[in-house]
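Bug #77: duplicate submission created two jobs. Keeping one. Sequence:
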Amino acid sequence: MRAFRLTLDPTQAQLADFNRHAGASRWAFNHALAMKRAAHQEWRSQVDTLVAQGMPEATARKAVKVKIPAKPSIQAHLNRIKGDSRRPTEPGTYGPDRPCPWWWEVSTYAFQSAFIDADLAWKNWMDSLTGKRAGRKVGYPRFKKKGRARDSFRLHHHVTRPTIRPDGYRRLNLPRIGSVRLHDTNKPLARLIDRGQAVIKSVTIARAGHRWYAMVLCEVHQAAATTTRAQKIRGRVGVDLGVKVLAATSKPLTLTPGAAETQFVPNPRHANQDRRRLTHAQRAYVRTRRGSANRVEAARQIGRIQHQIAERRATTLHTLTKRLAADFETVAVEDLNVSGMTATARGTLAQPGRKVKQKAGLNRAILDSAPGELRRQLTYKTGWYGSHLAVLDRWWPSSKSCSACGWRNPSLTLADRTFNCSQCGLILDRDINAARNIEHNAQPVAPERGETSKTPVEGAQVRPSKRTEGSTQRSGKTRPRPGHPRGAILGSPTPRDTRPLHHPDVAHQLHSDQRAANTQVKK
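Kept job's structure:
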């Protein structure tokens, strides 16, 4: 499955259709979520009634059975009660009390895809609560509000009778909307379809800033990419991500044709380039009155500037990741904990933080360089170009170790930009030294197990988990809001009764013997 992102150039009538479909999709999502939450609250009230009568809560949870409505039942219910503005108003039949009388003005797939999204949001919350979903905790599903939620909708079609198809190289045909002109060309997609190598499954129309985009999802049939001879000659490269420079590589790299080779990829600092313009727009927004047309225009200007920054950042990252994945056989990166690196330093009222302003500036610089997005792009682009991805354990001291002899300098600080080895006499740039260590010590990613799963080193010791079985320690820092129904899942115990066990990341199991040796050196 591959998505093709196309920039649209719609007419004013088509813009009105986009906004109408986006509003219908938002309404359908809220309608489905309201039905789910109503059933959930009914289950919660019945459980509370049984608990008030003396029944244990665990037994009451198992005794009460209330089915959460899904897409088929929600869609059938809406078809029975919806109105129709094309027919004359009749009391109790097509009156204003009937919901969405404008349903016929938009594609039915805008409703169906929103119902699917509501089911997925509910499932993600329940899986996160029961421990079936990895990653951060997913909060209780919330309603989408106009002006805050992203304007988007998804359309499907019958594959045998496609209504989503390229109309030449500069237009895209959409159901119920018509042929929309493109800013760029869709020649790669059109040629794949003409050769029978791609089949369009769906299209997502979304607004970002002042632009509308079409993400065309296709099923592409092509041979698996293999490593080329040029990639094998260049071999393996280590990439050290940072803020002073966007990336330092262990081997020279050519970013653009005709440019000189370099081991330092400069950091454009896109956010700083437009910081003054963005600050001016935000101050103008604050001075406007709530609900006024000037406030809407000021918000639109802020979104335009932020979108331009994001597009320039994406262009820089795509250029770098493509060159890394296409020019080398293996790309080695470090497993960075971006969320931990960008945590706030405010502290609490009892223990306030230190250097909060400086830490906030560092957090903005790290997020502007987007190391997580670079890692995500390398994950799928290495498969596209026949290369491989290797990841270094985040606890391996790549900056404090000598890339030549392995000696470690525990007293190295961030102010030391040059690594001086007191054992072999190596004098090298700090970032280049770290890139070489990443190249030599990173382990390949197991593609069948996902991006964040690493292949353990054979014979390596397994690092014990900090959370033992039966522990009730919370792994996240977020706390439920007052009145938040977290933990109230139909037929399941509450988090205080049964909590999912914390499984240590496989990355923590790598190089355990090297970390033990580093501990001995520090002592």
